[in-house]
Amino acid sequence: MAKAGGGAILLTAAAVLLLLARPARAPRLFGWRLALPTQGQALAQIGVACIDLAAASAALFILVPGIAPALYPTLFLAYGLAVIVTLVSHVPGGLGIFEAVIVATLPDVDRPSLLAALIAYRLIYYLIPLLLGVVAIALHEGNGWRHPVSRVLDGAQAAASGMAPVMLSLLVAVGGVILLISGALPAIQHRMRIVTGWLPLTFIEASHFAASVIGTLLILLASGLYRRLDAAFWMTRALLLAGALFSLIKGLDYEEASALLLIAALLQWTRGAFYRRTSFTAEALTPAWIATLAVAVGLSIWIGFFAYKHVDYQNDLWWHFGPHANAARFLRAGLATAVLAVGAAFWRMFRPATAPRPADRRSITASADALALAQRTDALLATTGDKLFLISGTGRAFVMYQVQGHSWIVMGDPVGDQSEWPDLLWQLRERADAEQGRLLLYQLSLDALPLAIDLGLAIVKYGEEARVDLHHFTLDGPDAKPLRYAERRAMREGATFEIVPAGRVPMLLAELKAISDQWLAAKGHGEKAFSVGRFDPAYIAACDCALVRQEGRIVAFANIWATANRRELSVDLMRHADEMPYGTMDFLFIRLMQWGREQGYDWFTLGLAPLSGIEARRLSPFWAKAGAFFFRHGESFYGFEGLRAYKDKYAPRWEPRFIAGPSGISLSRAMIDLQKLVGGGPGSAATRTRRRRTHAPPAAGLDDEGGQSSGRLAGADVG
Asked: With a threshold of 0.85, does the pTM exceed it?
């Protein structure tokens, strides 16, 4: 106000001085000629300044109640004087100075009315233009800020959605507990009097009952929110709003109503986090959540009995209705919640749970283009006939996996073009998540380990794989003495080596089948699945086969795996007769490696040594200590250390292999599913997939992992 009024006075003064002392020539400043206003322009400035002062003082005059019109000239002069004094004082806005001059020059005006008018004048003069300016700037700058702000809000919403299942399930459960405890405590008397004055008693009683029931349901639904179920989202939101309404009706409990509305708002803001379109009832009522519900209901009942311990409980107390019948209301609400909790528990016990169904069960055939690009022989596990496949759009890469229970288990690295691996793994992870499943990557190499980290999976070292560099493989030197001895002794006992092309294998199937059956009977177990092959005529006939004969009789065989680019050579199914020359299997490996080197292969893979290379130090995690203990002392269960020593004879390069999966107890549950899957029994999903195949080759051979002569060199799997 002082700035505007002062500007008008300064403008008037400058115009008057210009008229009285106008220079003959326009002044110059730093070489620039300043154009002065003409006399007409100066007179116009004086007129504008006078009109501005008159209008501003007139606005103040109108705000003063009961002032006589004859006092306007006095007010005008007082206004001008106040502006001048404000300019001289240099007080910001003339705060206090301006008002004091006006009051001093108008002694006949009612002081309180004049001060009130001055305050209103300040508000109108300052705040209304300021608000209009803010609105104008906001409208002008809105388009420029809209997209950045939208991006920030979207980012915040995405971050909140990531935490929403855990946080909101906890908040909703807390909201349910609040409603239960509130139903067990007496209402605040003065609030109850207000409610009973407006609403009928029956309505209040029903609201009290309904609020306690809603509290129970919210605790049940919290588990569904944790699992990101859309049905739980819709029901929880409706119950939160209803609970807030009933909290107000039953006793003006606006505190708990506000808390429930806040939780509902957070739930609505993060609604994108609850995207699983499936029934939640089979998974919501888990034993843990039933126990939580029992504790909450028991706590509310205990609080109620403690609060009403002075009440003489009689049978007719159940039917006592009245504004102060808090104990009766507690009994009825406690009975309702207990009945609901027991009913939900029995419903959970008698309701069968349904396992998730993958969206791509028809993908049971691998991509030939991707297999042609494979860098590792593990990719040929895709030909065993017991896996599902997620294939990239180009067909140059795929992931082989199986769904066992709620676990989506991937076998090895993705196969094919590595540039397409990330998208495939993310697709599979999203599918598993949408089906409420857990993703487990089994026997992962260093090539795919960064992808598992990006997926947010926990990493566990599983063991080490023995790979022999065929360009440097030799039987010379002291370290190779055991191999030389085994080879020579097998040869002295009549062992010979032979590579049979796949086209001639069908003629040998009967003899090979007899050896396989004999081997299985000696080991005392059946075929396994998923991580190794099994004896199946179609699978065996599709591969070249390495044989060891003694006097023309086959005593051992192994089907050969080889990559198309001759980078790696390996074997899958290896079995032998009971009677065979000493060192037969060493003889088979030595000759097969020598043959592979002659054919131009770079590496020969001897398979895994489970639990190998895991160090157990004082600060190591529990799984590392347990793995190291079983590796050193678990010979009675499985020859972990002996298997490592056996493969060490070939001077391999040991490369780590990993398991990547969910953290905590979920990883243990996934490992149980893995054990069931590779076991190959009737409950194995791999067995069921093999039976469903009608056009693809049947499942291939598989081996036990309990001896040095089992499938994948006895170390492919321990489940």
From this structure: no
